[in-house]
């Protein structure tokens, strides 16, 4: 499996027991969606390696506690701390309405209710506390925060996102 065909699921943050159980911080608002996984890909030495899951359950509502089939010692579990987990894109639950996955909207056109056509999303920058749409507006980069109240419609058929941002925000980038 190639990484570009997968989505980032989370990171192994620590061991839970001496029996090889691990705690995983899942990159989602609802970790419970992933309780029934049968397998995951674990990135080890820049290669995605499949691991089969013996048991998987919620731990304190924000983490998943996972017991892999072939990991049964404290030492082997400890070697996995910090590893990243991935799933194939086909495993993502389908979203509707104004909810979307970041990778899904790359290439979408952004239209503001007051400004009109802003441009095309080239990237979602989520390196800081606030994620931003990075939009190409005729060669100029415009940043719009990914805020639920700004997003009015996600039109997957026509690859368009309609927003209503604070007056003057877009113009700041174009002066």
Overview of this protein structure:
The protein is mostly beta strands and 175 residues long. It has two domains: 89 residues, Elongation Factor Tu (Ef-tu), domain 3 (Beta Barrel); 67 residues, PRC-barrel domain (SH3 type barrels, Roll), CATH 2.30.30. It is 6% helix and 46% strand. It is built from two helices and twelve strands; from the N terminus they run E-E-E-E-E-H-E-E-E-E-E-E-E-H. Strand 3 and strand 4 form a beta hairpin. The longest helix is centred in the C-terminal third of the chain and has 6 residues. The model has no long low-confidence stretch (mean pLDDT 92).
Percent strand:
over 45%
**What's the name of the CATH homologous superfamily of the largest domain?**
RimM
- Count up the helices: 2
Q: What string, H for helix and E for strand, traces the elements in order?
A: EEEEEHEEEEEEEH
CATH class of the largest domain: Mainly Beta
Low-confidence stretches: none
Indicate the radius of gyration in whole angstroms.
20 Å
Distance between the termini: 45 Å
Average of per-residue pLDDT values = 92
- The third-level CATH topology of the largest domain is Elongation Factor Tu (Ef-tu), domain 3
Question: Topology of this protein?
Answer:
Elements: E1 6-15, E2 21-26, E3 39-44, E4 47-59, E5 63-68, H1 74-78, E6 84-88, E7 109-112, E8 116-125, E9 132-137, E10 140-145, E11 151-155, E12 160-163, H2 169-174
Parallel strand pairs: 7-12
Antiparallel strand pairs: 1-2, 1-6, 2-5, 3-4, 3-6, 4-5, 7-8, 8-9, 9-10, 11-12
């Amino acid at each position: 499996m190639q990484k570009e065909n997968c989505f980032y699921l989370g990171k192994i943050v620590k061991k839970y027991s001496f029996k090889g159980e691990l705690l995983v911080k899942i990159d989602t608002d609802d970790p419970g969606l992933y309780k029934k996984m049968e397998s995951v890909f674990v990135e080890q030495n820049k290669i995605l390696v499949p691991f089969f899951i013996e048991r998987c359950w919620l731990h304190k509502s924000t983490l998943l506690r996972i017991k892999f089939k072939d990991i049964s010692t404290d030492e082997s579990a400890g070697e996995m701390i910090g590893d990243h987990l991935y799933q194939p894109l086909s495993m993502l639950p389908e979203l509707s309405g104004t909810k979307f996955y970041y990778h899904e909207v790359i290439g979408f056109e952004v239209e503001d209710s007051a400004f009109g056509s802003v441009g095309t999303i080239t990237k979602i920058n989520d390196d800081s506390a606030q994620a931003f749409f990075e939009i190409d507006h005729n060669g100029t980069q415009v940043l719009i925060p990914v805020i639920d109240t700004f997003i009015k419609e996600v039109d997957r058929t026509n690859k368009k996102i309609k927003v209503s941002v604070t007056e003057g925000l877009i113009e700041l980038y174009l002066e």
